[in-house]
Design brief:
By secondary structure, the protein is mainly β. The chain has a single domain, classed as Jelly Rolls (Sandwich). 6% of the residues lie in helices and 47% in strands. The chain is built from one helix and eleven strands, in the order E-E-H-E-E-E-E-E-E-E-E-E. The strands form three sheets. It has a six-stranded antiparallel β-sheet, with no helix packed on it. It starts with 13 loop residues before the first strand and ends with a strand.
């Protein structure tokens, strides 16, 4: 759901949608966020989502983005990104804040960690799929 609050925003609670016309729209993080994104932003065609997530254990899903590459930036903690491509699994260890990985379009990926970790994501949202690990 779009927000009408004034700046500054807090990324963990208010994500940012980058529109095809280069404008930016803050959206409140709610339990129905992804349903609203598809409905309010034309199936997310041509849009990008800037988001931030905290986690302290392995992701329960594999994710894939058919619309483009995803930028994943480590803010704190550490994680191993596992990216499946061309029949192999690449493991990228992000141990230092400021490290990042580019997950190629159409590559399934997940993350593993055992410590509190915060990551920033810039995601081409159209057609994103998740399946259990």
């Amino acid at each position: 759901m779009m927000t009408t609050r004034r700046m500054p925003f807090h990324l963990p609670s208010t994500f940012l949608v980058l529109r095809p016309d280069q404008s930016a729209t803050p959206v409140d993080v709610t339990p129905s966020l992804y349903e609203h994104l598809d409905r309010d932003f034309a199936g997310f065609r041509g849009h990008w989502l800037v988001s931030c997530f905290s986690f302290d254990c392995d992701w329960p899903t594999w994710e894939i983005h058919p619309a483009g590459d995803e930028f994943v930036y480590l803010l704190s903690g550490e994680a191993t990104m596992i990216v499946r491509r061309d029949g192999a699994e690449d493991r990228v260890h992000l141990r230092e804040p400021g490290s990042y990985v580019i997950v190629p379009k159409n590559c399934r990926h997940t993350a593993k960690t055992t410590v509190p970790t915060v990551m920033l994501f810039v995601t081409p949202g159209e057609g994103t799929e998740n399946k259990p690990v």
